[in-house]
Structure formats: C-alpha cells, structure tokens
C-alpha cells in the first residue's frame, strides 16, 4: 500500500477552486481597475496546491514504482506561493496586469471578508516523492493556470 497526501487540487473539472478569482479578476480588468483588494491575512497565507495533471502523474508513479510500496508521500508544488502571488499569477493568465493589494478586512465589502485565522500555513513538503520516485510537474505552472482559466470561462459562458 502507498499513501498519497493530496494538495488542494485545481484545474479543469475541479470544484471551481479558482473560479471566484477568475470572475473577480475579469471584472477588475474590464473596469480598468489597477488592483485586486484582498484581506491582509489571506493575502500572506500559503496553502499547497497541485494542478490536476501533476497530481495524476504522482498517482501513476506511485502505482508503477515498487519503491513506493509501504510509503507515504505528500504531493504538491515544490514552492508554495502566497495567495496574493497565486492570484497575481491567475490574473496574468487572464491577461490582467494589475496587482493584489492587501487591505484590512474592514475595508472590504462584507461578502469578501473571511473570519478565518490565517496564522498557520498549510504547506507540505513534497521532497520525498520527488527524490524517491522522480516526481516532477508535467504541466508548467503558468500553463496549468491558463487551462484552469480557460475551463472556468467556458463554464461561466454556459450558465
């Protein structure tokens, strides 16, 4: 048996993990607004993600490599960006070149605030699967975001 600890998986056919950011960024771009305002704590928070194709690659490696037997592996990106950095990358995939501006929660509309505590990151180290099984991303980060944005926009146009 091999255990794979998945990251937050994103990409086509996900649970629309980045959908709200695609919508907000598209609105900002069409209105000419040069920034995306984001709650301070959330902007600095890190949470390990993985593109669906890359996570599938980890599964293939675990199933086809006997060395994986009896092991537990974390799967995810090699470096975990902050949410501000991640949303700026999503924005670039859309063609928007504004920036994320962290602001206090009180400066955001109620529906954009969260009551969560972002003092603790959800970052995992995927070095073991990379070293043992040679895991590497098969889809470049920017390409994964581009595919995700394309899929999100296709879903939005069908509504």
What does this structure look like?
- The protein contains six helices and six strands; from the N terminus they run E-E-H-E-H-E-H-E-H-E-H-H.
- The chain is globular and about 55 Å long.
- The strands form three sheets. The protein has a two-stranded parallel ribbon with strand order 1-5. The protein has a two-stranded parallel sheet with strand order 2-4. Strands 3-6 form a two-stranded parallel ribbon.
- The protein is an alpha/beta fold and 159 residues long.
- It starts with a strand and ends with a helix.
- Helices cover 42% and strands 14% of the residues.
- Helix 1 packs across helix 4 and helix 4 packs across helix 6.
- It has a single domain, classed as Rossmann fold (3-Layer(aba) Sandwich), CATH 3.40.50.720.
Provide the helix percentage: 40-55%
| Overall number of domains | 1
CATH class: Alpha Beta
Helices, by number, come to 6
CATH superfamily: NAD(P)-binding Rossmann-like Domain
Strand count = 6
Largest sheet: 2 strands, parallel
Radius of gyration: 17 Å
Give the overall pLDDT as a whole number. Answer: 95
CATH architectural name: 3-Layer(aba) Sandwich
Structural class: alpha/beta
Distance N terminus to C terminus? 42 Å
CATH names the topology as Rossmann fold
Q: Which stretches are poorly predicted, pLDDT < 50 over at least 5 residues? A: none
């Amino acid at each position: 048996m091999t255990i794979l600890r998945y990251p937050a998986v994103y990409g086509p056919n996900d649970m629309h993990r980045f959908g709200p950011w695609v919508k907000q960024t598209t609105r900002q771009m069409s209105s000419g607004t040069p920034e995306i305002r984001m709650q301070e704590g959330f902007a600095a928070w890190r949470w390990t993600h993985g593109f669906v194709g890359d996570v599938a690659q980890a599964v293939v490696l675990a199933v086809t490599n006997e060395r994986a037997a009896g092991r537990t592996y974390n799967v995810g990106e090699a470096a975990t960006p902050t949410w501000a950095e991640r949303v700026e990358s999503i924005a670039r995939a859309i063609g928007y070149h504004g920036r994320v501006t962290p602001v206090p929660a009180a400066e955001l509309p109620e529906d954009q605030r969260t009551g969560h505590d972002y003092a603790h990151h959800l970052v995992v180290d995927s070095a073991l699967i990379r070293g043992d099984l040679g895991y590497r991303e098969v889809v470049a980060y920017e390409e994964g975001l581009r595919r995700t944005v394309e899929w999100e926009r296709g879903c939005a146009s069908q509504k």
